[in-house]
Design brief:
The complex is a heterodimer of chains A (65) and B (663). Chain A is mainly β. Chain A has one helix and five strands. In chain A, strands 2-1-5-3-4 form a five-stranded mixed beta sheet, with helices on one face. Chain A is globular. The model of chain B has no long low-confidence stretch (mean pLDDT 94). Chain B has a five-stranded mixed beta sheet, sandwiched between helices. A three-stranded antiparallel beta sheet of chain B has the order 8-9-10. In chain B, strands 6-7 form a two-stranded antiparallel sheet. In chain B, helix 20 crosses helix 23 and helix 20 packs across helix 27. The two termini of chain B are 56 Å apart. Classes of the chains: A mainly beta (65), B alpha+beta (663). At the A-B interface, strand 3 and strand 5 of A face helix 8 and helix 19 of B.
Chain lengths: 65, 663
């Protein structure tokens, strides 16, 4: 199990940041992702593997209004 | 999200992002390749050819390519300084040096190629230090930064030059100075500063960052140039916060019919049509032209429609209407009649729900079947409003007025109307579903001017990011963001470029939601205008807080500045009806179990609505106390005397107004 924005998400072996965002239905354009406080560049979303019990933050930068 | 490809650079294996340029890959690998026409913020052009490298493709074919515009798409071998490459670069450097022997970038790049003298001599040598070297950066900046083509090349061969059309000053040039900013030699200079800013360079440097971000990053972020604020329709529907049928729901299967690309592909034909700054590099305003009207006094005429933008499109969904042409038509007539699209759509959505719930009938509406999705009835209501006829006269008074009349004269259910009438302080709510964000409920309801976006947009910080879980966290956000948004008003600055495009490295910032890089740019801009050098977050907050508290006192004078005026209708906080609860039952049942500690099993929807309501209303009360304290207000929502003194606005006439309400 991992946590994403303090919510639990079942962990799967080999799960990448891109997989996490897809599982959470996060389609927003302005997302900044950190895994265990390490920021992940957008170019690495497909390749960065998220370990079990990781704390993932997917910060949606507010826009609009 | 990028795929990586393994390539070999000077016999060393490295990874490169697929579709990145070879120049990016080479530089990321620490290799130096000279360039002259390249600029990090402009599209590559390949015209100086100094960035050439020798490559060997998978088939074994070797060739020379310009690395700045060669996309990496397969494993290749690369040599940045092969014998052939060095020879070609030297020849190019010599030719540049013969044409522009004194231009500093030319001399510098020639030196890196090992060239200090040239064998060539000609009649077209320009030996000025600030000579134009025809790199084309200015031409690209004009097109890419501000979407203009005012500066361009003319002539061929040795007569090629950069100029405006017909060699005359083009009146369409708005002096954005992008061309001068990217010019490597100083051939283009800004000689006028008509507004006489204290430090024009400081202002330009801050502004150019945004221009570059719009050219390079916007297509990957919110696509403001392509679709403007319309992009938010798609986002809101996908995150279940698009207002549908008077805010009952947050998404709808038919919402895709009004997604931004529907308008982009079928209706929008213009950028920059409304009252924004000419030359704004974002150009988020969109217009529809020609549009043939189907109703009203201009039926059959083809018109230009200024929009629609997010709130207007979402307002259509709020009325249960998912026809893009309805959104455009009501947009046009609201503009033409001088009616705000938010107030019209929110008010009409309220009328539609009341009609469907039997609170009013055709007897009251003058025969109009005002059900959700009835576009013809909604447009007829709009025309009546403008003409001052029929039911439109009543609806034009707004939700607060309608509630009173219907209860007093038609015997309508007062509590139900209060719950579903989406207004605070008499102003109709703008188009966000806030049920799952306590901070956004507070942002809307405690807003001095009523429930609009000027006092922040915290839904994602709160509901999705879970960044502000405690009351204190929410209070801090409701302290900072309304003051930051107020600051734009103080200086007459546009807010959109603050957070509708963000710097590439924003994700590394501690408070990424504040977009600190852009906050700094705004501060440098103000410093450049005023000739000061000490703008800071602390100073910004103080400047805004003075005005904000003055506004709160004015609000009190107008009869709205008390705690009682800062409560939302319950529809803003949670599900009013069993239908709403059941539409998101899993979510609400989970909350009852985990937050309220109540087992929802065997309870009716009506019972669960009641229990959840008690919990949410209590949460709101607690948050209000903390927010008021953080703002420096009494528990009743009045600025304290101490806060006025701290801000230096304890003027006798203001003290007189707030003194009776001190606790």
């Amino acid at each position: 199990m991992i946590t994403v924005n303090s919510k639990e998400l079942p962990w799967l072996p080999g799960m990448t940041v891109a997989d996490v965002l897809k599982a959470m239905n996060y389609s927003y354009a302005l997302i900044a992702v950190s895994v265990n406080d390490q920021f992940i560049a957008r170019d690495d979303y497909d390749t960065f593997v998220v370990e079990d019990e990781a704390d993932v933050k997917a910060l949606h930068i507010c826009h609009g209004g | 999200m990028a795929e990586k490809i393994k390539i070999t650079i000077n016999d060393k294996e490295v990874e490169a992002v697929k579709d990145s340029t070879l120049l990016q890959a080479v530089r990321a690998a620490g290799e130096k390749v000279p360039t002259l026409c390249h600029h990090k913020d402009l599209a590559p052009d390949g015209n100086c050819r100094l960035c050439i490298c020798e490559i060997e493709e998978a088939q074994g074919h070797k060739r020379i390519v310009t690395s700045c515009n060669y996309p990496v798409r397969e494993p290749i071998k690369v040599w940045t300084h092969s014998e052939k490459v060095v020879k070609h670069r030297k020849l190019l450097a010599e030719m540049y040096l013969s044409r522009w022997p004194s231009a500093r970038p030319v001399k510098a790049v020639a030196k890196t190629c090992g060239v200090t003298e040239t064998r060539f001599r000609g009649d077209h040598t320009d030996d000025k230090e600030e000579a134009c070297i025809l790199c084309g950066r200015c031409v690209r900046a004009c097109e890419e930064f501000v979407i203009e083509d005012i500066v361009n090349f003319a002539g061929r061969s040795m007569h090629r030059q950069v100029t405006m059309p017909f060699g005359e000053v083009d009146p369409h040039c708005i002096g954005c100075s992008s061309c001068a900013y990217v010019c490597p030699t100083g051939a283009i200079k800004i000689v006028d500063d008509l507004n006489h800013p204290a430090d024009a360079v400081k202002i330009r440097n801050a502004g150019m960052k945004i221009n570059a971000e719009m050219a390079r990053l916007d297509p990957l972020q919110n696509r403001m140039r392509q679709v403007g604020t319309g992009n938010i329709v798609d986002v809101m529907d996908q995150y279940d916060i698009l207002p549908v049928m008077n805010y009952k729901f947050g998404s709808h299967p038919e919402a895709k019919k009004i997604y931004c690309d529907v308008f982009r592909n079928n209706y929008w034909t213009q950028n920059q049509c409304d009252g924004c700054w000419l030359g704004c590099s974002m150009a988020c305003a969109k217009a529809t032209e020609p549009f043939e009207l189907k109703t009203g006094p201009y039926k059959g005429q083809k018109v230009i429609v200024d929009g629609p933008e997010y709130e207007t499109i979402a307002g259509a969904a709020n009325m249960g209407c998912f026809d893009p042409e309805f959104a455009i038509e009501y947009n046009f007539y609201c503009d033409t009649y001088g009616i705000d699209t938010i107030s019209f759509s929110t008010c009409t959505a309220f009328v539609m729900e009341a009609f469907e719930a039997g609170q009013i009938t055709t007897e009251h509406t003058g025969g109009l079947e005002l059900k959700f999705g009835h576009t013809a009835a909604a447009l007829e209501l709009l025309h009546q409003m403008a003409k001052g006829e029929g039911f439109g006269v009543d609806v034009g008074q707004g939700i607060r007025w309608l509630k009173k009349k219907w209860v007093a004269e038609y015997g309508a259910d007062e509590r139900f109307l209060q719950d579903i009438g989406m207004e605070v302080k008499g102003l109709e709510v703008s188009e966000y579903v806030t049920k799952e964000s306590l901070a956004q409920q507070g942002g809307y309801s405690m807003a001095v001017k009523g429930p609009q976006h000027d006092e922040s947009w915290l839904i994602f910080m709160d509901m999705v990011n879970n960044q502000i879980p405690t009351f204190e966290d929410k209070a801090e956000a409701l302290y900072y963001f309304p003051l930051w948004r107020t600051w734009f008003g103080l200086f007459g600055l546009c807010k959109i470029i603050w957070n509708d495009v963000v710097p590439a490295d924003n994700y590394r910032e501690k408070d990424a939601n504040k977009v600190p890089g852009h906050v700094r740019s705004y501060f440098r801009y103000v410093e450049g205008m005023l000739g000061i050098d000490d703008m800071s977050e602390e100073k910004m907050l103080e400047q805004s807080a003075r005005v904000y508290n003055l506004q709160r006192i004015i609000c009190r004078l107008l009869g709205y500045g008390h705690r009682k005026d800062d409560y939302p209708p319950y529809r803003m906080m949670g599900p009013v009806t069993a239908e709403e609860y059941e539409s998101r039952q899993d979510r609400y049942d989970k909350q009852l179990k985990e937050l309220v500690k109540v087992d929802p099993t065997a309870k009716s929807s009506a019972e669960k609505v009641k229990i959840l309501r008690q919990y949410r209303e209590d949460q709101y009360e607690q948050m209000m106390d903390v927010v008021y304290k953080r703002k420096g207000w009494t528990r009743g929502g009045i600025p304290t005397l101490a806060r006025l003194k701290e801000l230096g606005i304890d003027l006798p006439e203001l003290v007189e107004i707030v003194r009776p309400y001190q606790e």
